[in-house]
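ingest -> validate -> predict -> emit
validate: passed (alphabet ok, no gaps, 568 aa)
predict: started
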Amino acid sequence: MDPRFRISEDERCASEASYISSPPLLAMTYTQSHYTPQGIPSSRSATMASSRAFALVLLLCALSCHHAAATYAPVPAKEDFLGCLVKEIPARLLYAKSSPAYPTVLAQTIRNSRWSTPENVKPLYIITPTNASHIQSAVVCGRRHGVRLRVRSGGHDYEGLSYRSEKPETFAVVDLNNMRTVTVDAKASTAWVDSGAQLGELYYAISKSSPVLGFPAGVCPSIGVGGNFAGGGFGMLLRKYGIAAENVIDVKVVDVNGTLLDKSSMSADHFWAVRGGGGESFGIVVSWQVKLVPVPPTVTVFKIPKTVKEGAVDLINKWQTVAPALPGDLMIRVIAMGDKATFEAMYLGTCKTLTPLMTSKFPELGMNPYDCNEMSWIKSTPFIHLGNKATLDDLLNRNNSFKPFAEYKSDYVYEPVPKPVWEQIFGWLVKPGAGIMIMDPYGATISATPEAATPFPHRKGVLFNIQYVNYWFAEAAGAAPLQWSKDIYKFMEPYVSKNPRQAYANYRDIDLGRNEVVNDISTYSSGKVWGEKYFKGNFQRLAITKGKVDPQDYFRNEQSIPPLVEKY
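emit:
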C-alpha cells in the first residue's frame, strides 16, 4: 500500500465545505438537549466581557506593533477598522497579524498545507465571535472601512479560500470556531446548530436526545456545519433523505447591511440560495434549523475489500448500475485505491433483512452475515469513517494533526463507464503519485428531487459522483501527485457529464475557473465558467439573487457567486 494513504481515512470524506475551522478538542456539556463546548459562551447568550477602557488599551498596543506587520492596506484604514471593531467586540476575540497567538489561530484551521505557505495572502485580522452581534459589528465595520470578510466554520475547505486570498487583498477572517451550540428538540424532530459546530458534534447531540433520530449530512465528523450545509452536504443517508441543505427549515444570517435575518424576514430567493449555493456569497449564516429524520434502532454496516485479482473490475462494473437502483434504505459506496476496491455500505435495518436483499440485487459481491456489523446509527458514523475501533468520543475530537499537501477534483457520471475503462482506471491507481477515487451512488431520494428545488442540481439521471483525492507530505514531493490528478481528470473526460462537465461545490476546485473583478465587482461572465459546473442552470438564479442581496459584491472570494443585477 502506498504509505501516503496508510495513516488516515480523514481525506476520504465525502462531504466537505466552503467554510473551514478546526479548533482544539473541547468537551461538550449537555443540559436538556442543549450543547455548548465547555468554556465557550453560547452564541445565544454570550456577552461582551471586556470593558471599553481595557479594549482601548489593547487597541493602542495592537496598533503600535501592527504598523510594521501588515502590508496590504494603508495604515489609517486598518486603524479605523480595528478601532471600529473594539467598540463592539471584546479585544480578546480579535487577532492582529502582530499578535503572538495569530499564527496558531490561523494554522489550527488549515487542513491542506498547500495553503499555509508564505506565498498565500493571509488575513489582516482574525475575528472569533461568540454571538451574532459580533458578526453584525464585523460586517458593519468592514464595509465602513473597506475591509472585506471571509468566513470559515469547521473543517474541509479544499482550496482554502475561506482564509486566504490568491492575490493581495485587504481582508479579515470571521472564524466561527467559538460558535458551535447545538439545541435539539426531539419532540419536534428539529435542531438548531451553529455554523461553527462540526458534523460530529451535531450527530452526537442528536443521539443524546433520541436514538431514533439522525441527520443526512457528510461522512466525516470533522466537517464544519456552515460549509457543508451551504454547499449541499451529503453522506451515507443521501439515498434515503437527500442532502443536508434540503432538510434546512430556517436560518439566521447576517446580511451585507449587518442585519440579522431569518426565513421570515428574508426573501424566498435568499433563503433558497443559502441552502446549497455555496458559502460566503449571500451573507454569514450564524445558525441553521434542521429537520431531523427517523432512523431505525439498528443499522447494518459492511466493508468488503476486493482486489483486481479477486474481481474488482467486474464488481465495480456491476456496482455502477446496481447501486443507484437499490432501495433508498441501502447505500453502497466504493473507495478505489491501488489495486483494491472497498465496497462500503450502510443499511437502515438488520443483517437479517439485508442479506437476502444483497443476494437478490448484488449476489456477485458475495456479501454474507459474517460481513455484517449491526449497531445504532450514531455508532455507525465514527465506524464508517474511522473503523471498528472508533468511539463516540471521536465525534467530538476537534484536534487535527493530519495536515497533508492535497489536491481534489470531482465528477458526475450519467452513463455506465465501459468495463475496459475500469481496467485502465485501476492501471492509473497504481501509477507513481496515484491518489484514490471515492464513488457515491445516487438514485432514490437525492435523484427524485427537482434540480431547481435547491441550488444543488445533481439529481435525475446521475449514477454516481466521483471524488479524486490525492495527498503528499512534503511540498517538494507534489509534482507527481499533482500531475496524476491532472492526467486522470483529463482521462475521465469522455466518460463523465458534459455541457457542462459537472462538479460538486463542496469539493471546491479552483482549476475550474476564477472570478475576474472589474470595477471592484466580480463579473458574471467569469463566474459562469466555473459556476455552471457546480450549479448548472441554477447559477443564473443564484447570480440574480446575489445582485439583489449584495449588489456591490462585498462578500466575495475567487469562487463566490457574482452579482447579476437585473435591469428593468
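Confidence is low (pLDDT under 50) at residues 1-32, 38-78.
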